[in-house]
Amino acid sequence: MGGLFETFEYTQVEIERLVEEGEQVGVVLRVRAEGLGSGVPIDQRFSHLLTFREGLLTRFEWFRDPAGAIRAVTAG
Q1: What is the number of structural domains in the chain?
Q2: How far apart are CA 22 and CA 25, in angstroms?
Q3: Residues 18-45 pLDDT 10s
Q4: Cα–Cα–Cα angle for 58, 60, 65, nearest 5°?
Q5: I want to staple 28 with a disulfide (CB 3.0 to 4.6 A). Which of 17, 20, 22, 34 is the partner?
Q6: How does residue 13 score in pLDDT terms, banded at 50, 70 and 90?
């Protein structure tokens, strides 16, 4: 993921939805950015599933489908 920060200039990162169930948190993000070399704009939504144990992040999953992490939290 580190390469992403070197490739784009981020203009906005917005949390659209956040769902918590036990030790899991599903987050839907909308990201607006421009390519550093090309100036091409992007506007994308995706989601992350975060799993915590004793207050520490123990697992991070990235979903291309914006609702994927929310489904994973609510299904389990």
Answers
A1: 1
A2: 8
A3: 999 999 999 999 989 998 889 899 899 9
A4: 155
A5: 17
A6: confident
CA distance 62 to 17: 15
Claim: this prediction has a pTM higher than 0.85 = no
Q: Which of 25, 76, 74 is nearest to 53 (CA)?
A: 25
The DSSP element (H or E) to which 75 belongs, if any, is helix 68-75
From residue 75, alpha-carbon distances to 3, 19, 39 in Å are: 32, 12, 39
Q: Name 64's Cβ contacts closer than 8 Å, sequence gap at least 6.
A: 46
DSSP 64: S
- What 8-state DSSP symbol labels residue 21? E
CATH number of the domain at 19, please: 3.10.450.50
Domain assignment of residue 55, given as a range: 2-75
